[in-house]
Amino acid sequence: MLLPMRSTIADYWRRESPLGLMLDYDGTLTPIVPDPTQAFLPPAGWELLLKLCRHPWIRVAIVSGRSVSQLRFFLSALTGEAITLCGLHGGEIYVPQKDHFLRQPNREQLQQQLQPLREKVIAQLTAANLLNSGIFLEDKTYSLAVHYRQVEASVKPQIIELLYGLFTHDTELTAPFKLQPGKEVLEVLPRTFDKGDCVVFLWDFWQLRQGCYIGDDVTDEAAFVAVNQRGGLTIAVGKTPGTTQAQHICSEVGDVYRELAALASQSKS
Ligand SMILES: [Mg+2]
């Protein structure tokens, strides 16, 4: 006799109340790729996410540093499905089914504040001869991501030092923003964009009693803390013990899909 697949999430969920499934995108649902514009979902991912978001007792959200418009592009095959897209670390929250934003940042104000800071970052990188070092500046409308994945290892510390130096010395210009480290990226981000704050919003909005958050990056730590505080389940991808607030660790994206597959197979409505 075949035993049903077990998983940490399926074991956690008591099925007395809806399960909130909150998932980071890059490094959690897709492997990290050198070119961030090519982070497509693996084919098996579509079917699984579709199955999970059609389940009447599972609420699915993607919680990413990407913008909602980027998430809509990468997840276009799920258009019209019940999947909440939280972009910009929760700075914007979009419900595609209703074509409705639950949360939107003050675009004009933030852009006005970001523009002079962006110019200063570029000027300092240029002055330090770092602008052509392989840096990729990603303009995200409300934030500026400085990717240094393709920069020579010996040069990376200079870039990091330059950005932190700017935030230390120019406190007036940088006041509305924080420097958020990620995997081979430093993001100049409005202080109000925070994954911990985002999952608290979802938890209340969905009126959850049970929820699970899966993520792989430094930015996910705030979400782990918030979900832990609410008695939820947290899983970190590719972390080592002692480096994360998550309760469980899995080693790779494939493990996330095995978890989700097990949950989907046990979640017959
Ligand atoms: Mg990630």
Structure description:
There is one protein chain. This protein folds into 2 domains: 8-105 and 193-265, HAD superfamily/HAD-like (Rossmann fold, 3-Layer(aba) Sandwich); 107-190, Hypothetical Protein, Haloacid Dehalogenase-like Hydrolase, Chain: A, domain 2, CATH 3.30.1240. The protein is 35% helix and 22% strand. The chain has 9 helices and 12 strands. The strands form 2 sheets. An 8-stranded mixed sheet has the order 5-4-3-2-1-10-11-12, with helices on both faces. Strand 10 (210-215), helix 8 and strand 11 (233-237) form a beta-alpha-beta unit. Helix 2 packs parallel to helix 9 (253-265) and helix 7 packs parallel to helix 8. Magnesium ion binds at residues 24, 26-28, 215-217.
In the CATH hierarchy, what is the class of the largest domain? Alpha Beta
**Spatial extent as radius of gyration:** 19 Å
Secondary structural class:
alpha/beta
Proportion of helical residues: 25-40%
Output the helix-strand order: HEHEHEEEHEEHHEEHEHEEH
Total beta strands:
12
Kindly, what is the distance between the CA atoms of the first and last residues, rounded to a whole number of angstroms?
23 Å
CATH level-3 fold name of the largest domain: Rossmann fold
The biggest sheet amounts to: 8 strands, mixed
Named once each, the bound ligands are:
magnesium ion
Write the CATH architecture name of the largest domain. Answer: 3-Layer(aba) Sandwich
Strand content: 15-25%
Please report the number of helical segments.
9
The side-by-side strand order for the widest beta sheet comes to: 5-4-3-2-1-10-11-12
Overall body shape: globular
Name of the CATH superfamily of the largest domain: HAD superfamily/HAD-like
Q: Which ranges are low-confidence, i.e. pLDDT below 50, for 5 or more consecutive residues?
A: none
Number of domains: 2
Mean pLDDT: 92
